[in-house]
Every structure is written in structure tokens, then in C-alpha cells.
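As a next step, the fold was encoded as C-alpha cells, giving this record:
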Amino acid sequence: MEFEKMFISFRRAALLSIIMLGVCNVKAQKDPCSMTEQLSGGTVFTGNVSKDIGNGYHVELWSESNAGSVTCFGGDADCAFKASWYNCGDFLAHVGYYDGSAAKKHTELGRISAEYCYTRQGTAGNYSHIGIYGWTKTPLLEYYIVDDYFEGSSLLLGWSVKKGTYTFDGDTYDLYKVQRYNAPSIIGTSNFETIYAIRRNTRHCGHVSVSEHFTKWEEFGIKLGGLYECSFLCETGGGAGSIEYTYATMRWKGQPGHGIVLGDVNNDDMITMADANAVVNYFLASDKPADFNVDAGDVNCDGDVTMADANQIVNIFLSDGK
């Protein structure tokens, strides 16, 4: 037994001794719920808009009567936006990942995660959704991860079938499926399914384990196609009001996002050998600990936590965090 422990310690030490070059954009850590300061400037969009905002993210605005607007702050503000509406019927403002060709499945994008903080006011008519929104192609599917809403959740839930219940990010989500017929979609009027994962206790800030939601849906028999969109959303069905995302960042393979100190796995505001050792322990563990900070541990932003990340943490430590 002692020999086995010594062998494992030696193996870990040997793995940590390998140093690889290159670090993926080390950034300052933020608690999303503390990011309440209003942003200034930005670009205002009105009418029906679908456009790249120049920092790796995409904005889309749609309303039945063009009686709303969205302001994207862009740059290091990532997906942060504010929007307002006034008696415009169905209104959607969303910012995030977009690929019109839907060439990649979510598993090919590594681990998708999101963090946000926002305030809202006013009314939203007959229905509303605030959270994560998107579409897949082949099969054509619309989906919502609903973390909050105004007067009520969704008008469509009256025709829904409950698929299951699960717990992520500190709360329980109820999963529903609605079959849509001759309804508007990203390819025109079509038949498709809409998926709703609705958080039981609403919130205005926090972390969303997007990929984990997708994986859980697939376990419940829901088929996801190539990822067309994955965005922060505010959708309303009328009323007059506004929303302001003071913080909104989304991360996937090749898009590291902001708000994370890559390499600071134990969240002590330092990058040390303790962080490298934590990555090694995670990599070697057969049962991955649920509380491990995967976003911070994926230093090379390839969507997985491996020895390459531990090696880069060693490199950061030996270069005084630079």
C-alpha cells in the first residue's frame, strides 16, 4: 500500500515536471453577482437585426412591431447588453454564440458555460423568458434555459410534455417539450420541438453549466443537432419594460470569455503549485469531483482539463504569474 502511494506521488511529481509553453489569456476573476455597475456607451440597434458585434459574439433583435431596441457594449464587456420594449408583441433580444451553418455539435465546442448579472423593470405581457436561448439544426430544435421571468413563464407550457427533473447550479430545473407546427423558425415556417428547462427558484445572477444541461437533455431522449445559437436572452410577449445585463460572459472552446483567472483553480487569487496539483488530482481521478473549477482549470481553452493544463500552470507559476 505504501509503495502504491509512493508510486502515485512520484507519477504526479513527474507529470508536473513537464513544462509546456503558451497560456490562454489569463484574466481577472469576478463574482458575477457583484458585477452590478452600469456600463456606458455601446452601440444601439433597432428594427430586426442579426449581426456580429466584433468581439466573438453575435446580437439578434426581433420584434413583431419594431417597437424596441438593444444596446450592445461589446469589447471586454463580452455579451453584456441592455434592451427595452414598449407594446411590441413578441420581443426577443439575445447575444452570444452564433454559427449560421450549425457545423458543430455542442460536444465539439468543449465545455460551454455562462455567467451573468442583470436588473429588470416593467412588465412583459402574457409570457417572458430570461436566461439562455438558442437553436440547433438537424434536427431543428429551439431551446430555453429559463432562470427568471416577469409575470409568468411560457404561454406554450399548456401544450407541453414534462420530460424530467434535474439539479444543476444550485437549484432544480423542470424539463418540458412542446411540439410546434407551422411556427416561425430560423429556416422559416416549420414544424419543430421547443425545449424548456425552467429553474424553480428564479435568480438575477449566477453561473450556468450550459453543456451539462445539454447532456442531461440527451439523457432524457432529446436529440440535439448542430449548434446554431447559444445566447443570453430576454423575451417578452408584450408590456413595457427594460433589462440591463451589467455582466454577461459565455465561454466555449476557442472563446475563453472574461471573468476567470485561468489557472487559479482554488480561487485564492494566486496561481501556485497547489493549483497545478489540483489539476493533476482531477485528471487522475476516476470519479471527477463535482466542485472542481473546470473553467479555471482549462488553461489552454480546449474544452477539457488535462495534464497540458497542469503543465501550463507550472509554467505560469515559474514565470511569476506572467
User: Anything to note?
Assistant: The CA atoms of residues 204 and 245 lie 9 Å apart.
